[in-house]
Amino acid sequence: GAGECGPAAPPGPPREQPVLEPVLPEEPNGTDSAKAPKVNCEERNITGIERFTLRILNVSQDLMEFLNPNSSDCTLVLFYTPWCRFSASLAPHFNSLPRAFPTLRFLALDASQHSSLSTRFGTVAVPNILLFQGAKPMARFNHTDRTLETLKDFIFNQTGIEAKSDVAVTKEDWEGPLPSVLTKGIDWLLLFSVLFLASFVLYATLRTESIRWLIPGQEHEHQE
């Protein structure tokens, strides 16, 4: 779609995963503020916490270890890739969200390093933002305009939790923890796809040649 990079997950049939209920898309509606929250989030205790920041999962960390299925607390999870320019432009805005909503948790993971999660939650392109309650995905952010204000509106419309009014994107938010500068590297998925396609064409060509020799009359035609 517009404003997205893809694919985030490798092609082919999805791996067998526990069945999840469908993620509900956000319903853009200017009157949402007058409605009851769609997700009743249990706000975490922030006593003693001085720094509210985003946590980025590395390749060895499993998202499900950071989501408590027995709680009602909410976590906003960003699927991104460091080579996607739309992920990079979103980064400073997403970095500022933990200060705007200190009672919620914010995680980010490189979708190319967590392909099984991308497949499991239907993340076919990045950036992709999911709101979890416990370990259950409840809503997906669907707007292509990804700014601090639109993210604030999305969280408020879904949870009824208001953002702190004095939070803005700062210079530090452009620096991290989520990178706002594109990382150049080899697209291993694309390289593998090209090599696989080339190997298949070569195999099919050789296989066709072998079959041709088995057809009566083809061998004599070749000798002539």
Description:
The chain is of the alpha/beta class and about 220 residues long. It has helices spanning about 85-100, 115-120, 150-160, 170-175, 190-215, 220-224; strands at about 25, 55, 75-80, 105-110, 130-135, 135-140. The radius of gyration is 23 Å and the shape is elongated. The N and C termini lie far apart (about 55 Å). Mean pLDDT is about 80; it is low at about 10-25 and about 30-35. This is TXD15 protein. Keywords: Membrane, Transmembrane, Transmembrane helix. InterPro entries: Thioredoxin-like_sf, Thioredoxin_domain, TXNDC15.
SSE topology sketch:
Blueprint: E1 24-25, E2 55-57, E3 74-80, H1 85-100, E4 105-110, H2 115-120, E5 128-133, E6 136-141, H3 148-159, H4 171-175, H5 188-214, H6 218-223
Q: What's the helix count?
A: 6
The CATH architecture term of the domain at 55-175 is 3-Layer(aba) Sandwich
Could you spell the SSE succession in H and E letters?
EEEHEHEEHHHH
Largest sheet: 6 strands, mixed
The radius of gyration computed from the alpha-carbon positions, rounded to a whole number of angstroms, is: 23 Å
Fraction in helix: 25-40%
Instruction: Quote the beta fraction.
Output: 5-15%
The pLDDT mean sits at 81
User: Ranges with pLDDT <50 over ≥5 residues?
Assistant: 11-23, 29-33
Shape: elongated
Question: Strands of the biggest beta sheet: in what spatial order?
Answer: 1-6-5-3-4-2
Descriptive tags:
Glutaredoxin, elongated, 224 residues, alpha/beta, 6 helices
